[in-house]
């Protein structure tokens, strides 16, 4: 998801600072993105941090923005973890880990980015507006058939509500919205999609468009919400689920 959205943002002509928990991103994919950035006249940089850690996240964001050519105007946050398990026996420490990354991590990232935008506004004569986009999930609305994942679903519902509150607090200078995907074919979901073909077929059948999504399906929605094309949209969740939740 992150790589696909970086590609889309670079194609729109913006510089990008990628942030992830690993020391280095996947070499081939990152090299291709660097080639794209060069072709578009953009700058692509990378910084490592654990977004559930308040101090390291703030440091990474400040370092990234200090090297930027332009004011900081857009954020896409898609870091998340999750796995299935019967709620009666689901380990509480694992539930806390999911909440820490998916929900508290979103708040930490929002705080780090929001403070940087406010600092820019204080020192620049013209007001700098920004747009923040958080990746939530259709799991914030529904119970996923065949996969008990209460902690994950609760964390994503929390992201949706967190977004509405931040949007109300930070308007009009910062717009805050979410995208709620359906099931996505990514490395994180590969294991269950391969081992449970019954679920793969069920989820595909339950989706009006008859297929599971790919990371590329979220390129347009993310760029739209980041851009001035969505200038009158805030506190909104954009469901991109192929019609799964509309039955």
TrEMBL record:
Listed Gene3D superfamilies: NAD(P)-binding Rossmann-like Domain
Cited SUPFAM superfamilies: NAD(P)-binding Rossmann-fold domains
Swiss-Prot/TrEMBL keywords: NADP, Oxidoreductase
Family: Belongs to the short-chain dehydrogenases/reductases (SDR) family.
Protein name as annotated: Uncharacterized protein
InterPro entries, sorted: NAD(P)-bd_dom_sf (IPR036291), Sc_DH/Rdtase_CS (IPR020904), SDR_fam (IPR002347)
Pfam families noted in UniProt: adh_short_C2
